[in-house]
Amino acid sequence: MLLKIEKNSKVIEKNYGTVKDGLKAYERGKGSPKQPEDKDEFKEFKASKPFFSNQKKDDSYRMFLSGSDLQRYHLKWSGKFLSYGNHLAAPRDSKLFEGERLLIARIPVKSIYTFRATYTKENFVHEQSIESITNLKVSPLYLIGVLNSKILSFYAIEKFDFLQRNTFPQMRLTQIKQFPIPNSNDDQQNEIADLVVQIMEEMTKEKVNQDLVDSLNTEIDELVMDLFGLTEEEKQIIRDFEV
């Protein structure tokens, strides 16, 4: 089934967007001015968490997302700020953190929906626990629907086996770049995007209607499986898939 999924799709990188690592705040001897090179000095420096704050102290401070702030179809910002600039070990290009883009957490959840992906156009910055997908070439809402679908979880778990590792499981940048996005036309993309909008709106409510979210998830799963060209027997394997 993995071969069929790959045959009826194109990988994200170059075809649908550009996948990039987040910034790196700390590293010995990096940044300008340089962070401490001595091991013990650096350990103490990092433990004091310079650059982070719970308030916007000046214009260099930008809203910061950690991996735990990212949920399926929803961002729940903790209120943390990061002073962004050349003093960071690897600040990356600031354009990476601006405009329309997708965010996906590198640490998977042990669930039939293993990925946490969502959309934003807010100027959040984030470290490498979150990957950013920019330069989007199709509807971002369609892409989120596919990334958060059950069949993508099935594919990635079977293909990369990251939930079975003895070490702390996380996806690599190279793996995310290879995620298959099914071939589709505008109408098919819009149908999935409309369902994604409903989920995202529901997720912002104080009391989420989980039955509605579950129903919408199932609708998206069925549509995405159709786009991958699965037979009814193959679809049932995905429906019955458990982690």
TrEMBL record:
InterPro entries on file: N6_DNA_MeTrfase_TaqI_C, TaqI_C
Superkingdom of origin organism: Bacteria
Domain called TaqI-like C-terminal specificity: residue spans: 63-181
A Pfam family reported for this protein in Swiss-Prot or TrEMBL: TaqI_C
Protein's name in the database: TaqI-like C-terminal specificity domain-containing protein
Organism listed in the record: Streptococcus anginosus
